[in-house]
């Protein structure tokens, strides 16, 4: 499934200007855990691959606040979650809405949804981690799951999409982006990740009850509760 099939957009890269300071940020605490969750999203089909001119990337973006700073670490643009190392992540240090410019440090461009992450962190001091993924099961069962959804569908990577999220965000930790995907947030990466998993598995249960012979191959995978119980990453 390509990014264009998920959101209705053809992927054209980031849609903002980037002020990138080339710098090694691989020593920032927490990147090992972020890489772990990227691989879990890939495994569960929550970050489906998309093609671009130079290769294959993963649809979705994961981030966490850098403690005691106004910065956050986020996945890079145009990168497969299967191949991420600590050196690939990007530290976003600020955003200029008027100039549509992201200030960052690292070796890569930050995720195309960096503005959305930035504005959520600015408006929700309690949120320490934001995971954005794609789950067709969630989109198909929004009403039954009784979750908040944006009022209008907006193009990926735009301020319009970020503002649409802010309209319904409130104190909600789970928001569905209409026709696009979902946001799972929490006071830690584990909280954001486990919430995404719980919602994903609820949607799978609903699909299975509606279609007993439903083929799960390629539709979304489950993470074992035994593995979740052993999740004590630092």
How would you characterize the overall build of this protein?
- The protein is 32% helix and 22% strand.
- The protein has helices spanning 3-7, 31-44, 114-123, 136-140, 142-145, 159-169, 189-210, 225-229, and strands spanning 17-22, 49-52, 55-58, 61-65, 72-74, 90-96, 101-106, 129-133, 148-149, 174-177, 181-186.
- β6 and β7 (101-106) form a beta hairpin.
- It has one domain (3-229): L-fuculose-1-phosphate Aldolase, CATH 3.40.225.10.
- α3 packs parallel to α6.
- It has 234 residues and is α+β, with helices and mostly antiparallel strands.
- Mean pLDDT is 87; it is low at 1-7, 213-220 and 224-234.
- The strands form two sheets. Strands 1-7-6-5-4-8-11-10-9 form a nine-stranded mixed beta sheet, sandwiched between helices. The protein has a two-stranded antiparallel ribbon with strand order 2-3.
Structural class: alpha+beta
Give, in order, the helices and strands. HEHEEEEEEHEHHEHEEHH
* Fourth CATH level, the homologous superfamily: Class II aldolase/adducin N-terminal domain
Mean pLDDT figure: 87
- Strand order within the widest beta sheet: 1-7-6-5-4-8-11-10-9
- Tally of individual domains: 1
Given the structure, what is the number of helices? 8
Architecture per CATH nomenclature, i.e. the level-2 architecture = 3-Layer(aba) Sandwich
Regarding CATH, which class? Alpha Beta
Largest sheet: 9 strands, mixed
- Uncertain parts: 1-7, 213-220, 224-234
The total beta strand count reads 11
What fraction strand?
15-25%
What's the N-to-C terminus distance? 33 Å
Whole-angstrom Rg: 17 Å
**Could you state the oligomeric state of the chains shown?**
single chain
């Amino acid at each position: 499934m390509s990014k264009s099939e998920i959101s209705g957009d053809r992927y054209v890269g980031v849609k903002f200007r980037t002020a990138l300071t080339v710098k090694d940020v691989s020593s920032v605490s927490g990147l090992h855990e972020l890489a772990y969750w990227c691989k879990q999203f890939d495994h569960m089909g929550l970050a489906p691959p998309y093609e671009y001119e130079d290769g294959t990337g993963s649809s979705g973006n994961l981030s966490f606040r850098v403690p005691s700073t106004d910065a956050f670490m986020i996945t890079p643009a145009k990168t497969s979650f299967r191949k991420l190392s600590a050196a690939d992540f990007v530290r976003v240090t600020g955003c200029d809405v008027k100039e549509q410019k992201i200030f960052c440090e690292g070796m890569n461009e930050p995720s195309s949804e960096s503005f959305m992450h930035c504005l959520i962190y600015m408006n929700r001091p309690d949120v320490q981690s934001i995971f954005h993924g794609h789950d067709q099961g969630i989109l198909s069962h929004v009403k039954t799951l009784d979750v908040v959804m944006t009022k209008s569908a907006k193009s990926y990577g735009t301020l319009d999409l970020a503002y649409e999220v802010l309209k319904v965000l409130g104190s909600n930790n789970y928001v569905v982006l209409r026709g696009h995907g979902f946001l799972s947030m929490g006071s830690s990466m584990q909280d954001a990740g486990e919430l995404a998993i719980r919602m994903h598995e609820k949607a799978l249960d609903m699909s299975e009850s509606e279609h007993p012979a439903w083929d799960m191959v390629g539709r979304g995978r489950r993470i074992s509760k035994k593995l979740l119980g052993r999740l004590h990453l630092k």
